[in-house]
Automatic annotation (TrEMBL):
InterPro entries: MFS, MFS_dom, MFS_Efflux_Transporters, MFS_trans_sf, Sugar_transporter_CS, Tet-R_TetA/multi-R_MdtG-like
Compartments in which it is found: Cell membrane
Protein name, per record: MFS transporter
GO molecular function: transmembrane transporter activity
Originating organism: Paenibacillus faecis
GO cellular component: plasma membrane
Transmembrane annotation, as ranges: 42-62, 82-102, 109-131, 137-159, 171-190, 196-220, 248-271, 283-302, 314-334, 340-361, 382-400, 406-426
Bilayer disposition of the protein: Multi-pass membrane protein
Main location group: membrane
All copies of domain Major facilitator superfamily (MFS) profile, residue ranges: 44-430
UniProt keyword terms in alphabetical order: Cell membrane, Membrane, Transmembrane, Transmembrane helix, Transport
PANTHER family: CHLORAMPHENICOL EFFLUX PUMP RV0191, PURINE EFFLUX PUMP PBUE
Domain of life, per lineage: Bacteria
Family assignment from sequence similarity: Belongs to the major facilitator superfamily. TCR/Tet family.
UniProt lineage: Bacteria, Bacillati, Bacillota, Bacilli, Bacillales
Length: 434
């Protein structure tokens, strides 16, 4: 009789209930990690938030100063707008280069020297103002812009490296909100500093940079940096990303750029309008009025960042709702720009729309690529945002010289076009990748 080998039959049962429990337990573990490091995370969030605030002060703090700068230096409206534009243009050009360097060498190693140069260039601009040298101020502002390329844009990539899921979205929302807080506070601070002397804002930059520098040095622990890539393979990977996702990425870049083009252009318009008859409002009161639309954007940005997490469907809805709010409110300003109260109300609605738009774009764009390419992608995005800021004030200034109504016909038309592009081209999945 042939011997038979005894064999064991292993049967494994998988229960949907067990899988659900595993999923729930992993979510709880993630929450515990988030809550467990709560105190440390709060300090990290504060440190990260200082970086975009410092960046925003670089432009927004000077907006209320521009009319007086024109009088003191004997320059025209276009020349004064270049104080804002040269900063943003330099940043926009250098951001992609610095983004690559941050991917290659690390985030903090870029942010720290950038803050030092940023503050030093502020001092140079201050001395240029004392010497009544418009040329020195412009050169200093260009240097500041180059340094600015290594601040908030790299902070966005750093957030993508440090956090995942809902925490990442919350941190990105915080960046956009702190960006907005800077925009709210900066015209008020600029208006207060101008009471001392008109160029005091330039000398305030090193102080703010020093505070941010200390926060970054001691409160942020950057994750271990991934393997370095050579430039050729890096650009090759970038090309692959745009080949696969270029349609919606380029549309997202354009939408983010438009949001800031309109925001800074409108601030420039409002700052000049308030100082002209019949309003003749300047000083702190003007700073407070400029802060109203920005406050709406700040609250909306932070709330949006906290809610969206990685919910692609919600993100798509909020992007489109934000652009609808911007388009409709800007179209209404064509008829109501002469009524200052209605005008400010409509600008606030538009800013709330921007507050819905930008955090959603941030979350989509940072989640579109792996960590090793994130610095370059977010840098390209921020580069175009800066170019939006750069062209806002001079183009608005030129259009103001032609016709006030032309200003709002142009920007409302641009908003409606962007809404159409976004509606048809941006369709994120129901759940975004971590």
């Amino acid at each position: 009789m042939a011997k038979t080998k005894s064999r064991k039959l292993n049967i494994t049962f998988e229960s949907d209930i067990d899988l659900e429990r595993e999923s729930e337990s992993s979510e709880k573990t993630e929450k515990k990690k988030t809550n467990g490091g709560g105190k440390g995370r709060i300090w990290e969030f504060i440190a990260i938030a200082t970086i975009p605030i410092v960046l925003v002060f670089g432009n927004s703090m000077l907006v209320p100063v521009l009319p007086q700068m024109q009088r003191e230096l004997g320059i025209n409206k276009f020349q004064s707008s270049l104080i804002i534009s040269i900063f943003s243009l330099a940043a926009g050009i250098f951001i992609p280069v610095i983004g690559y360097l941050s991917d290659r060498f690390g985030r903090k190693v870029i942010i720290i020297p950038a803050l030092i140069v940023y503050g030093g260039a502020g001092l140079l601009a201050g001395f240029g103002a004392i010497w009544d040298s418009y040329t020195v101020i412009i050169i200093a502002r260009a240097i500041q812009g180059m340094a600015a390329a290594g601040t908030a844009p790299i902070a966005m990539a750093l957030v993508g490296d440090m956090y995942k899921g809902g925490t990442e979205s919350q941190a990105l929302g915080l960046i956009e909100a702190s960006n907005g807080v800077g925009k709210v506070l900066s015209p008020i601070i600029g208006s207060l500093l101008v009471l001392i002397v008109w160029y005091a804002s330039f000398f305030a930059f090193p102080v703010f940079c020093a505070l941010s520098l200390l926060a970054v040095l001691f409160m942020i622990k950057e994750p271990k940096h991934e393997k370095k890539q050579d430039l050729k393979s890096y650009i090759g990977k970038l090309g692959e990303i745009f080949k696969e996702k270029g349609r919606w990425l380029i549309t997202s870049f354009f939408a983010g750029s438009l949001g800031l083009f309109i925001l800074f252009g409108v601030l420039f318009y409002l700052s000049n309008t308030l100082e002209d008859p019949p309003y003749k409002i300047d000083g702190v009161m003007k700073g407070l009025i400029l802060a109203i639309p920005l406050l709406g954007m700040v609250i909306t940005s932070y709330t949006t960042g906290s809610l969206i997490k990685k919910k692609g469907t919600l993100i798509r809805w909020l992007i489109n709702i934000g652009l609808v709010m911007m388009s409709v409110s800007l179209a209404a300003t064509i008829f109501f720009f002469t009524n200052i109260y209605v005008f400010i109300g409509l600008l606030t609605l538009s800013s709330i729309g921007t507050g819905l738009l930008l955090p959603c774009l941030n979350t989509m764009i940072t989640g579109a690529v792996q960590k090793s390419e994130r610095g370059m992608i977010t840098s390209l995005y921020n580069s175009l945002r800066f170019l939006g800021v750069a062209f806002g004030p001079p183009l608005f200034g030129w259009m103001m010289d032609q016709s006030d109504r032309l200003v709002f016909i142009s920007v409302s038309a641009l908003s409606f076009i962007t809404l159409g592009l976004v509606f048809f081209l941006i369709r994120p999945p129901a759940k975004l990748a971590e």
